Amino acid sequence: MNMKIGITCYPTVGGSGVVATELGMALAEKGHEVHFITSSLPFRLDESETNIYFHEVAVNSYAVFQYPPYDLALASKMADVIKQEKLDILHVHYAIPHAVSAFLAKEMVNGQVKIVTTLHGTDITVLGYDPSLSNMIRFGIEKSDAVTAVSTDLIRQTEQLLKTRVPIDTVYNFIDERIYYPRNPVSLKQELGIGEQTKVLSHVSNFRKVKRVEDVVYTFQKVFAQIDAKLLLIGDGPELPVIRELVKDLGLDKQVYITGSQKRVADLLSISDIKLLMSSKESFGLVLLEAMACGVPVIGTNIGGIPEVIEHGQSGFICSLGDTDEAAAYALKILKDEKLQKKMAAAALQRAKTTFNKNDIVSQYELIYERTLET
Ligand code: GMT
C-alpha cells in the first residue's frame, strides 16, 4: 500500500538526521510519497528524486520574541502540509519538540493523520533528566500513535526515566550500503603519507563531551607505545580544541591526524584497521555501523545501545567506560593478529548486511505505519 508520509528531523549533520533522510529516500524509492518538513534541506537529501518533496519551516524572529518560535512554526507548517498533501503519516524524529509539534498539528486538522515518533536518545538520555522537560517528553511519546527507539536499551532507559505507559518498538538504524562499503584503501594511505604497514585507528564524532574523545587519544597512546600506528580523528565540535591541546601535550602531533568534518568518511574508514567509540552515552552509535559496513572491526564502550551493535568477540570488542587499558589491550589483540583482524572485519561486514539490513528495516517502518492506519 503506497502512503503519503511526512518526515520531520533535525536536518543538520547528525545520526538522527542521516537516518531520517535515508529512510525518506528509501520509502520514496519504494513508491511512497515523502514530504520532508524541516527547517532546511536535510544534508544528503536529493529533492530532485521522484516522490520526494521539501517543505521549509520558516521561523520568523520578530522583535517582540526573545526566542523565535520554531516549535509553533513547525506545528503550523505540519498542519498545512497534512491538509494540502493529505498525509497519512507524520514520522517525527525526537520526542521534543517534534512529537509535541506533531500533536498540535494533528489537533489542528481534527486528527486526520497518524503520528509515529522515533526516539534517538539525546532527548531521553540528556533532556529526560531535566524535570522541567520530562513531563513534556512523556506527553510527546504518549500522544504518538506508534513509538520506536533505535535500541532496546533506549526503550529500557525511556521506561525507567520517564515511566511511559505505551509500547515502544525497537527499530535499529541502517546505513546506505551504496556509500558505506569496503573501498580500496591503498591510494588514500599513500596520499596521507601513511606507510602501507602502519596500522590505522579512527574515531568519528561530533566531538561533544559525551563522546569522550580524550579516551580515544589515551587508548591510541597505549597502542602506539607498542606498534607503528596513526590515529584519524574525523569530525568537528565543541571539544575539538581541548583534544588538539591534549594531542600536543602528549607529543602525538605527528601520529594523530585531525581531519575536521569530512565528505570522504567512507574512504577514511576503509583505510582504518579499527574504529573506536568510547562514549559515555550512545543510544546506538551509527558511526559504528558505518565502520562495520566498510569492513572495519569496532571497539566501543559498554554503554546504551553499543552492545546491541557490536557482538563482543565477533565484530569487535566491548570495553568498560573510561578503561583505556582495556580498550588498548583489545585494539592490540586485533592489530597484532592478522587472522583475527580479517575474521572480525568479515564478521562486522556480515553483521552490517544482515542484522542492520536496510530493506528489512525500511519494511519494519512500513509495517508500523500500516498498523497505525488500521486503528
Ligand atoms: O550523538 C549525537 O551527538 C547525535 C545524535 C543525533 O540526534 O543524531 O545521535 C543520536 O542518534 C543517533 C541515530 O539514531 C544514534 O546513533 C546516537 O547514538 C544517538 N546519540 C546519543 O544517544 C548520544
From TrEMBL:
<dbReference type="GO" id="GO:0016757">
    <property type="term" value="F:glycosyltransferase activity"/>
</dbReference>
<feature type="domain" description="Glycosyl transferase family 1">
    <location>
        <begin position="189"/>
        <end position="349"/>
    </location>
</feature>
<dbReference type="InterPro" id="IPR023881">
    <property type="entry name" value="Thiol_BshA"/>
</dbReference>
<dbReference type="Pfam" id="PF00534">
    <property type="entry name" value="Glycos_transf_1"/>
</dbReference>
<dbReference type="GO" id="GO:0071793">
    <property type="term" value="P:bacillithiol biosynthetic process"/>
</dbReference>
<dbReference type="InterPro" id="IPR001296">
    <property type="entry name" value="Glyco_trans_1"/>
</dbReference>
<dbReference type="InterPro" id="IPR050194">
    <property type="entry name" value="Glycosyltransferase_grp1"/>
</dbReference>
<feature type="domain" description="Glycosyltransferase subfamily 4-like N-terminal">
    <location>
        <begin position="13"/>
        <end position="176"/>
    </location>
</feature>
<dbReference type="InterPro" id="IPR028098">
    <property type="entry name" value="Glyco_trans_4-like_N"/>
</dbReference>
<dbReference type="Pfam" id="PF13439">
    <property type="entry name" value="Glyco_transf_4"/>
</dbReference>
<protein>
    <submittedName>
        <fullName>N-acetyl-alpha-D-glucosaminyl L-malate synthase BshA</fullName>
    </submittedName>
</protein>
